[in-house]
Design brief:
Layout: E1 4-8, E2 22-28, E3 33-38, H1 46-56, H2 63-82, H3 87-93, H4 99-109, H5 122-145, H6 152-170, H7 186-196, H8 210-223, E4 238-239, E5 246-249, E6 271-274, H9 277-290, H10 312-325, H11 335-353, H12 357-367, H13 382-404
Helix pairs in contact: 2-5, 5-6, 8-9, 8-11
């Protein structure tokens, strides 16, 4: 049996220690990452483990997505335990839940798991309901599958009750909305670049980490990469010499050599991108400084103060600090906004270079790791598209006015 490492996710599902189900990442020695829900005694629960293994993993969900879903399930398990509900008995008998219980569950899911005042967003509430609905439905379908064919009337009655429950849990939920992220104006990007520069008066990071953070954050800005991609870059992926220095983003998922239990996932195609002078200088400065971080034990370029590979949460904290300490930076600034910024700049460049639509799409898809025929770029150029449409509207109105003269 494979050995396994555990790490407790730092967000507790409930503050009530007498009824707490925790969600943990684990890593097998093969490199595969997995998610477990544990009960009060810290023992993994059989029902949730089956769901994760047979349902979530078979759908190819990333560990981070599995973690988000199982947090909702753990919150649900806390709720039924508080209310003395035996879920195994309910699902086995087909009695499931009453309307009153479902209304109470809805109210529970609108609250923050941490107990802080207010309610969660509509999208967060919707996700909780959908994920727990799917969890209940999957287990109920397994019960139906075990009912003998000769007892078809019982199976039919169970299916009808289950369908009714699914409808009740789905009715009235907020509609799923696409995130309306856009790139930031040039002046905001300038504030960001000044704030991450080592020695800058607006740099919020400790001096020891300023060169590392500068190199890393420049990669997000210039290449528009996803959050995990630079964190998986190794020394072999960097070519800092010659006429065209490059960095390769080519890692795989579930890497056994990666000690991070919460591993960044590869969502884009492998690709090699050139390094401009600013990024090259920043990387060289960091590589020299990296020697003082006791980083010989890991091949990954970006490391913590004790030489371990930098975690996803560390990047989140960098952006939290920038948002909190640097005037002029948006309150929602993330690595993904830098991806939008880079797409906007590419749109401008394509116009300057006179690229036709096909050439622009091919170049954009390669640079950002999408398939050749992907239309993903349309989602990342909203601000430029909106500005162009507004200018076109003004031009149409100007011409209309001239025609009336």
């Amino acid at each position: 049996m494979s050995s396994v490492q555990f790490t407790l996710d730092n967000q507790l599902i409930s503050q009530d220690n007498s009824f707490r189900h925790a969600v943990k990442f684990c890593k097998f020695d093969t490199g595969e990452r997995f998610v477990l829900v544990t009960g009060r005694k810290g023992v993994a629960m059989e029902e949730t483990t089956l769901f994760t293994m047979l349902h979530q993993r078979s759908r190819g969900l990333s560990p981070n997505t599995m973690m988000a879903q199982m947090r909702a399930v753990a919150l649900f398990l806390d709720w039924i335990e508080r209310h003395g509900i035996n879920l195994t008995q309910r699902i086995g008998s087909g009695d499931l839940f009453t309307i009153e219980e479902l209304y109470a569950l809805r109210d529970h899911f609108r609250q923050h798991a941490s107990g802080k005042p207010g309610v969660v967003s509509g999208g967060h509430f919707r996700n909780r309901m959908v994920w727990v609905r799917d969890y209940i439905e999957w287990h109920a379908q397994r019960v139906i599958a075990r009912i003998p064919n000769a007892d078809w009337q019982r199976a039919q009655a169970y299916r009808e009750r289950l369908d009714h429950l699914v409808r009740l849990m789905s009715d009235g939920l907020p509609a799923a909305r696409e995130r309306g992220r856009e790139g930031h104006p040039e002046e905001v990007q300038a504030i960001f670049l000044d704030a991450i520069r080592p020695g800058s008066p607006s740099n919020p990071f400790k001096p020891r980490f300023q060169k590392r953070n500068h190199a890393l954050l420049l990669l997000y800005h210039e290449h528009g990469v996803r959050r995990a991609e630079p964190l998986k870059v190794t020394g072999e992926d960097l070519n800092l010499h010659g006429d065209m220095p490059t960095v390769s983003y080519r890692f795989g998922n579930d890497e056994a050599i990666d000690p991070r239990v919460q591993e960044g996932r590869m969502k884009t195609s492998p690709r090699t991108l050139p390094i401009g002078e600013n990024v090259l200088d920043a990387l060289k400065e960091w590589i020299k400084d990296r020697k003082s971080f006791n980083a010989k034990r890991t091949p990954y370029v970006f490391v913590t103060g004790n030489g371990r590979p930098l975690a996803l949460q560390a990047v989140n904290e960098m952006f939290q600090l920038l948002r909190a300490r640097v005037p002029g930076l948006p309150a929602d600034l993330t690595t993904h906004h830098k991806r939008h910024d880079a797409n906007d700049r590419l749109t401008d460049l394509s116009k300057d270079l006179g690229w036709d639509e096909g050439t622009e799409q091919l170049n954009r898809n390669y640079m950002f790791g999408w398939k050749k025929t992907s239309k993903q770029g349309e989602k990342y150029t909203k601000r430029r598209t909106r500005e162009a449409a507004m200018q076109a509207s003004l031009e149409l109105q100007r011409k209309s006015r001239e025609d009336r003269k």
